[in-house]
Automatic annotation (TrEMBL):
It comes from the Bacteria. PANTHER family: PROTEIN YIIM. This is MOSC domain-containing protein. Residues 30-167 form the MOSC domain. It holds the Pfam family MOSC.
């Protein structure tokens, strides 16, 4: 069992104008002070604009490793967004948990809430726009450093300084990195057996189950 990991910061943000006034987004998130209510659809005070692709029970909370910020400085330089938490629209920032060590279906105690890893993040063009046109989206896919989402199994509250503690790991062979590689980064082309085996991971979010089926041609 892995050691509990402290939360460095929690971020929330409202929906606001993004690229155009009629293209709103909730990607701009800033640190919040004190405890935050964790409910079935995420953190209190956090919003998503396009609910067809963002938010919902399977993508209630986005966790992005703050470990990766050093990597991004090598890729895009000292962008001012990297000087603060929430540069990539994440709700949770930590050190020590990455896509290589977190697995689909992992259950964690998060403050007084219980959350479960449902899928990796599938990055989009909004990251490029947020970073002033830099190719963040493509580089995130290539580097497989996209973070992951939680569904909330038990509501509660959490704050910066609280711990994220692993409770259960039913699929230790299915790291977020491996799953992301198969479903987003093109690894399915060389690993159809892996794509087939992914069907046994019951905790995988429905959109990624559908993506798997599409890649299998079923």
């Amino acid at each position: 069992m892995t050691s509990p990991t402290p939360v460095l910061s929690l971020q929330c943000g409202p929906v606001q104008a993004f690229r155009k006034p009629d293209e709103p987004s909730g990607i701009a998130k800033t640190p919040v002070d004190g405890p935050v209510r964790v409910h079935r659809l995420g953190l209190a005070g956090d919003e998503q604009a396009d609910l067809t692709v963002h938010g919902g029970p399977d993508k209630a909370i986005h966790h992005y490793p703050h470990d990766h910020y050093a990597f991004w400085r090598t890729q895009i330089g000292d962008h001012p967004l990297l000087d603060q938490y929430g540069a990539f629209g994440e709700n949770i920032a930590t050190h020590g948990m990455t896509e290589e060590t977190v697995c689909i279906g992992d259950r964690y105690r998060f403050g007084t809430a219980t959350v479960e890893v449902s899928q990796g993040r599938q990055p989009c063009w909004k990251l490029d726009h947020r970073f002033g046109g830099l190719p963040v989206n493509a580089r995130m896919v290539k580097a497989r450093r996209a973070g992951w989402y939680y569904r909330v199994l038990e509501e509660g509250e959490a704050a910066a300084g609280d711990m994220i503690a692993l409770l259960e790991r039913p699929h230790p062979e299915w790291t977020v990195a491996r799953t992301f590689g198969l479903l987003v980064a093109g690894d399915h082309k060389q690993d159809r057996d892996g794509l087939e085996a992914l069907g046994a991971v019951t905790g995988l979010a429905e959109p990624w189950k559908a993506r798997r089926a599409k890649l299998l041609g079923v």
